[in-house]
Amino acid sequence: MNVLIILAHPNPESYNAAICDAAEQEFKDKQYNVRKRDLYRMNFNPVLTENSYSHFYQDKIPADIQAEQKDITWADFLVFVYPTWWSGMPAIMKGYFDRVFTNGFAFRYSDEGPVGLLKGKQALIFQTTGLPEKVLKPPQITMAMQAAFDIGIMDFCGIEVLAHKFLYSVEYIDEETRKVMLNEVKEVVEMVGQQQ
């Protein structure tokens, strides 16, 4: 089983990095093949220019994007790890979808509407927030973020989301709570293994 982990956080010592490491180790312990794409360490360019947009439309995909698409094609599981900034994902992650999940690769349009081309793939999402659950859930911000990602991107491209795990108040938790949350990450990965 092949797993591609995509991390979007600028600090290599962040809690997001720790989540990424915990998930990676858990998958490796299960003998899965794991590749990791750390978008900030890669200096991934998230900007979709008009020139690039036209090339995508003409199916002339740049070499750097072809490499990312090759990894996605290889993967059975996609794992996304990122913080919540301004009620959404970091710009570098959004730009990853803008540039990598292209028309003709991740989806295509038909007379009946969009068709996801990444069917058969599954995804896990680990999303951290600086705010507590009691602040985000009542106004349905958590639900809106989850719908935008799980339905607006994953389902649109044919990818089945197995779990979208929110980890709340990460900037204010103590070391013991951090460990508890990392164990929850491992439990989510364990759940995936049991479904195979």
SSE blueprint and pairings:
Layout: E1 2-7, H1 15-29, E2 33-38, H2 50-57, H3 63-74, E3 77-83, H4 91-100, E4 107-110, E5 113-116, E6 122-128, H5 133-136, H6 141-154, E7 160-167, H7 175-195
Parallel strand pairs: 1-2, 1-3, 3-6, 6-7
Antiparallel strand pairs: 4-5
Helix pairs in contact: 1-7
Overview of the molecule:
- By secondary structure, this protein is an alpha/beta fold.
- It has helices spanning 15-29, 50-57, 63-74, 91-100, 133-136, 141-154, 175-195, and strands spanning 2-7, 33-38, 77-83, 107-110, 113-116, 122-128, 160-167.
- It has a single domain, classed as Flavodoxin domain (Rossmann fold, 3-Layer(aba) Sandwich), CATH 3.40.50.360.
- It has seven helices and seven strands.
- It has a five-stranded parallel beta sheet with strand order 2-1-3-6-7, sandwiched between helices.
- Strand 4 and strand 5 (113-116) form a beta hairpin.
- Helix 1 runs parallel beside helix 7.
- Residues 1-186 form the Flavodoxin-like fold domain.
Please trace the helix and strand order, writing H or E for each element: EHEHHEHEEEHHEH
Q: Give the tally of structural domains.
A: 1
Uncertain residue ranges? none
Measured by DSSP, the beta-strand proportion falls in: 15-25%
Mean residue pLDDT: 91
Tell me the helix content.
40-55%
Helix-strand makeup class: alpha/beta
Tally of separate helices: 7
Can you identify the CATH superfamily? Flavodoxin domain
Q: Please summarize the sheet with the most strands.
A: 5 strands, parallel
Approximate shape: globular
- Radius of gyration, whole Å: 17 Å
Order of adjacent strands in the largest pleated sheet: 2-1-3-6-7
What is the architecture at the second tier of CATH?
3-Layer(aba) Sandwich
Number of E strands: 7
In the CATH scheme, the class would be Alpha Beta
Keywords: Oxidoreductase
GO molecular function, one term: NAD(P)H dehydrogenase (quinone) activity
Domain Flavodoxin-like fold: 1-186
Organism: Metabacillus indicus (Bacillus indicus)
